[in-house]
TrEMBL record:
Binds 1 lipoyl cofactor covalently. The glycine cleavage system is composed of four proteins: P, T, L and H. Its cofactor is (R)-lipoate. Belongs to the GcvH family. It is found in: Mitochondrion. It comes from Brassica campestris (Field mustard). The modification N6-lipoyllysine is found at K98. CDD domains: GCS_H. Coiled coil: none annotated. The lineage of its organism: Eukaryota, Viridiplantae, Streptophyta, Embryophyta, Tracheophyta. This is Glycine cleavage system H protein. GO terms for biological process: glycine decarboxylation via glycine cleavage system.
Length: 166
């Protein structure tokens, strides 16, 4: 998802920040960075989507870092089952109280399941981005694309560098 969000930049420029810590929500196997969590065992795109590859299925969602920058998610647009997604191409959108952002697919493949719970409860992306807030499940057409994504340590460093630049 392209996180070129003016609202986040404005908040940073005005030195606005969240006073609530989410550390009590983080699992023991995560790597913490400020208020964001990065889970081991997932793959991450520079556009802030995550992928959990399990056999012939890849589950995709946006990262805790992304949802934190977006703020309260109020609407999610997702593709239909049996549609195709392409690596680094838009497959949907997330609308928050701050902005609307495109969601880019970290891999190519066929959508085999869509998280319909997000239609009525888009806030699941905020409260549980790696579990209940997943977006789509894909049958990868090119599993080698997974190897081009970052691991948890690489993604944590990427986010730190990105945040420092703003």
């Amino acid at each position: 998802m392209a996180l070129r969000m003016w609202a986040s930049s404005t908040a940073n420029a005005l030195k606005l920040s969240s006073s609530a810590s989410k550390s009590h929500l983080l699992p023991a196997f995560s790597i913490s960075r400020c208020f964001s969590s990065v889970l081991e065992g997932l793959k991450y795109a520079t556009s802030h989507e995550w992928v959990k590859h399990d056999g012939s299925v890849a589950t995709i969602g946006i990262t805790d870092h992304a949802q934190d920058h977006l703020g309260e998610v109020v609407f999610v647009e997702l593709p239909e089952e049996k549609s195709s997604v392409s690596k680094e191409k838009n497959f949907g959108a997330v609308e928050s109280v701050k902005a609307t952002s495109e969601i880019l697919s970290p891999i190519s493949g066929e959508v085999i399941e869509v998280n319909t719970k997000l239609t009525d409860s888009p806030g699941l992306i905020n409260s549980s981005p790696y579990e209940d807030g997943w977006m789509i499940k894909v049958k990868p057409s090119n599993p080698a694309e997974l190897e081009t994504l970052m691991g948890s340590k690489e993604y944590t460093k990427f986010c730190e560098e990105e945040d420092a630049a703003h």
